[in-house]
UniProtKB/TrEMBL annotation:
<dbReference type="InterPro" id="IPR002347">
    <property type="entry name" value="SDR_fam"/>
</dbReference>
<dbReference type="InterPro" id="IPR036291">
    <property type="entry name" value="NAD(P)-bd_dom_sf"/>
</dbReference>
<protein>
    <submittedName>
        <fullName>Oxidoreductase</fullName>
    </submittedName>
</protein>
<dbReference type="GO" id="GO:0016491">
    <property type="term" value="F:oxidoreductase activity"/>
</dbReference>
<keyword id="KW-0560">Oxidoreductase</keyword>
<dbReference type="InterPro" id="IPR020904">
    <property type="entry name" value="Sc_DH/Rdtase_CS"/>
</dbReference>
<comment type="similarity">
    <text>Belongs to the short-chain dehydrogenases/reductases (SDR) family.</text>
</comment>
<dbReference type="Pfam" id="PF13561">
    <property type="entry name" value="adh_short_C2"/>
</dbReference>
């Protein structure tokens, strides 16, 4: 899918960009004309992803970054601006699941790790992206929540809490910068065909098939469909969107 957007002469920053929704979004930004910084905790994978975009004729850099580590986040954003010249758009996508377990049986270390990456990581990325964007008086940020940010899912307490938190962070920051030329919104993707979901399908085939069967459209979304929503939110076409939650989920939350 080739998005009909023009990001020529702009720079985009994408976390969790070594694969799945992050890589699809980085590729979409690149195909729309942007220079792209791909950030991911997997150094080899993110460099390979960036090299692939470069071989296709795009301007891209790969940066190893653990979004739970503020020093690494600050360095990644600073390097993006230093090497690519500016920062216009960001998709804070990095995240992970915890084991599906009843709350009474959950481990505190699993909860803490999910919150550190899915929630604190988004906050850290926004913090350092905004420091650059406010100097220019322009920019667009999309924070990746989930359909789990809008509905409770049993067995996924930590994940659900982290994704609800992303929406709260997004709304608060959006209000802070609404009159300063910076737009911040949240994306709540439904089940999409990504490596994370593929692993869940292998580990829990019956449960995951039930999830897919429950999607009104009767199928998972594609990474490209989710990426297209990110680009729209970062484009002038979404110029009046501030602090909103967009849910490309095949109708799951419409029931």
């Amino acid at each position: 899918m080739s998005p009909n957007f023009d990001f020529s002469n702009q720079v985009a920053f994408v976390t969790g960009a070594a694969g799945g929704l992050g890589l699809a979004t980085a590729r979409a930004f690149a195909e729309a004309g942007a220079a792209v910084a791909l950030a991911d905790v997997s150094e080899d994978a993110v460099r390979e992803a960036a090299d692939g975009l470069a071989r296709a004729g795009h301007r891209a850099i790969g940066i190893r970054c653990d979004v739970a580590d503020e020093a690494q986040v600050a360095a990644a954003v600073d390097r993006t601006v230093a090497e690519l010249g500016r920062l216009d758009a960001a998709y804070n996508n990095a995240g992970l699941h915890a084991p599906s377990v009843e709350t009474a049986d959950a481990l505190a270390e699993d909860f803490d790790r999910v919150i550190a990456i899915n929630l604190r990581g988004v906050w850290l990325c926004m913090k350092h992206q905004l420091r650059h964007m406010r100097e220019r008086g322009s920019g667009a940020i999309v924070n990746c929540s989930s359909q789990s940010g809008l509905a409770g899912i049993g067995g996924l307490g930590a994940y659900t809490a982290s994704k609800h938190g992303v929406i709260g962070l997004t709304k608060a920051a959006a209000l802070e910068y609404a009159r300063r030329g910076i737009r911040i919104n949240a994306l709540c993707p439904g089940t999409a065909d990504t490596p994370m979901v593929a692993k869940a399908m292998r580990d829990h085939p019956k449960e995951m098939q039930a999830v897919i069967d429950d999607i009104p459209m009767g199928r998972m979304g594609s990474s490209e469909e989710i990426a297209s929503a990110v680009l729209w939110l970062c484009s002038p076409g979404a110029g009046f969107m501030i602090g909103q939650v967009v849910a490309p989920d095949g109708g799951y939350l419409a029931r």
